[in-house]
Amino acid sequence: MISKDIENVELKFLDLKDYQELKTAMKEVYKNIPDSYWAEKQIKSLIKLFPQGQVVIKVNGQLAGCSLSIIVDYDEFEDTHTFQEITGQETFSTHTEDGDILYGIDVFIKPEFRGLRLGRRLYDYRKELCEKLNLKGIAFGGRIPNYHEYANELTPKQYIDKVKLKEIHDPVLSFQINNDFHPSKILKGYLEGDKASKEFAVLMEWDNIYYKKPNKKAATKKSIVRLGLIQWQMRPYDRLEELLQQAEFFIDSVSGYRSDFALFPEFFNAPLMAENNHLSESDAIRELAQHTEAIVQKFSEFSISYNINIITGSMPEMKEDGLYNVGYLCKRDGSVERYEKLHVTPDESKVWGMQGGNQLKTFDTDCGKIGVLICYDVEFPELSRLLADEGMDILFVPFLTDTQNGFSRVRNCAQARAIENECYVAIAGSVGNLPKVHNMDIQFAQSMVFTPCDFSFPTNGIKAEATPNAEMILIADVDVDLLRELNQFGAVRNLKDRRKDIFELTKRK
What we know:
Elements: E1 9-13, H1 19-29, H2 40-49, E2 55-59, E3 62-72, H3 83-86, E4 101-109, H4 118-132, E5 137-143, H5 156-164, H6 173-178, E6 182-188, E7 200-207, E8 224-234, H7 240-256, E9 261-263, H8 281-288, H9 292-305, E10 309-311, E11 315-319, E12 322-330, E13 336-340, H10 346-352, E14 363-365, E15 368-372, H11 381-389, E16 394-398, H12 404-421, E17 424-428, E18 430-433, E19 442-443, E20 448-450, E21 462-465, E22 472-479, H13 480-489
Parallel strand pairs: 4-5, 8-9, 8-18, 9-10, 15-16, 16-17
Antiparallel strand pairs: 1-2, 2-3, 3-4, 5-7, 6-7, 8-22, 10-12, 11-12, 12-13, 14-15, 17-20, 18-19, 20-21
Helix pairs in contact: 7-9, 11-12
């Protein structure tokens, strides 16, 4: 049939009234397989058990194709199952509404209707149904009907590899791969009587990136996450209490907009060094480190009282006689976690005698996995790639730069990290001047939120940006589910397409 002859294409639930037409169609499609049609009582049983899973495509009122499926608890079956086992000897007793996988037991398009992409409509329906029912994914045993032509020279694995490389065309397997299904295992003796496939099948799978594991707790992880970035103005403070009062003001502001995170800049507490400006730079910052514990304690209290996760930027901290640049993640559940700056700048090392830390990890939050890299660390792409391998969705970068070229290094590297790691990156810095604090005289900043560059995101990869060198807050929403979609279906897939056969990145334990 050619498209100009089509007056109507309709996707409908299978009705028992369609049975005779269905039976005739199956005999035609599977003419090389004995007893290749379903009995009427079997179709009746499928419709009763799971009506949503049984659909047909009709063209000009004529049945053109069909898709049949059940829901199974996949843990109940071995990876080497047969068609008889997965269907309960074709009784469909294996179907359960409490299952986690939509299992396809049949799909076909009649020969005269092929080439109209009707099969894609059936697969798209299955995917939408899988997402709607919040199932982990779709699986089925896919036939390889051209394998008999190559069975004497190729193993099933070799055959599949050549189909994937487009060296061999298999009408079923090639179509399934083009519809985002991936082969995961070869099933031997899957469908009795399938001589064309030599009774081999390929276990094809499709993962539902929107699947959410049922949560037995009252709390749920968010997909839309609101970020509150604090572009901090450096100003003199006589006492720690004044600095904390200003910090609370900003936390109150971003939490008032129901933000999930508040991000402070690197060394936001530097104004407190003014009282020790008579000391050497290295001594003054060690005096500043004495305030860190009290600030973390207060920020933890703020995170609970304002119901917000706070990334404290960074502060100097003494540990075993060593000076480090560290920060804390104060969660709204009351827990506190620590992160370290791994690469100190030449200035931090030369002027302050600061050392690089050794801890790199992601953090679990009620909004997914996050990572934190302090300023200079974002200029080392290996760090964020390791965090991405651990499942990071959002990377936070507190920074402190004195000049515009220093800011440009942080800004441009941060945006690159968002693209190459398929994640969001939020950067927050300080503005203003501290004329009475040595080595902290001037600041330049523009806080920003970066995204990957693909159709679901801003074309320039910038979700939000603050006014340069002005004290303010920046609020932005990011959709974590879009990252899952990008990973599977993006125009480019940076994480999936890595050539792990020629290079590997690992983190030392």
